[in-house]
Amino acid sequence: MGRTTAFVLVAVGVLVTGCLGGTTVEDPARNADAKDVTLTIVANAVSGGKNARGADWIANWVIPRFTEAQKAKGVTMAVRFEQSGTADEAFKTKVALDFKTGGGGDVVELDGIWLGEFAQAGQVKPLDDVVGKADVDAWDGWKQIPEAVQGLGRFEGKRYGVPMGTDGRVLYYNKKLFAQAGLPADWQPRSWDELLSAAAALKALPGVTPLQLNAGTAMGEATSMQGVLPALVGTGKPVHEDGKWQGATSGVKDVLGLYQRIYRDGLGDPVLQQEANGRDRSFRLFAEDKIGILLEGDYFWRSVVEPKNGVAKMADRDAAVGWALMPAQRPGAGVGGQDFVSMSGGGVRVVNPNSRFPKQAWEFMRFLNSAEAVKASLAGTAQITQRGDVNDEVLAGDPMLSFVADKVLPITRYRPGLADYPKVSAALQQATADVVAGKSPDDAAKAYQDALVKAVGEGSVATG
Amino acid sequence: MAGLGVARAVGFVAPALLLVGVFLVFPALWTLYIGVTDYQLTGPAAAAPSAVGLDNFAAVLDDALFTNSLWLTALFVLGSAVVGQNALGFALAWLLRRVRPWLRRTTEGLVLLAWILPGPVVAYLWFAVLSRDGGTLGLLLDDPTTAWLVQYPMVSLVVFNVWRGTAFSMLLYTSALAAVPPSQLETARLVGANGWQAVRDVVFPHIRGHVLTNTLLISLWTANDFTPFLLTAGGPNHESEVLPVLIYRQALEGGRLGYASAMSSLLLVGNLVVALVYLRLLRRRA
Amino acid sequence: MTPAWVVRRIGLYVLVAVVLAFFAVPVLWLASAPFDARPGLGLRWPDWTFANVATTFRHPYAVTSLVNSVLLCVVATAVTTVSAALAAYSLSRVRIPGRDALLYLLLLLSSVVTGTAAMVPIFVLMLQLGLIDSRFGTALVIAGGMLPAAIFILKDFVDSVPRSYEESARVFGASPGQVLGHVVLPVARPGVATILVWSFVNAWGNFLLPFLLLRDVGKQPAAVLLRTLQDEGGSADLAVIPVFSLLYSIPVVVLYLFVSKRYGFRFHGGIKS
Question: What is the ipTM of this complex?
Answer without folding.
Answer: 0.84
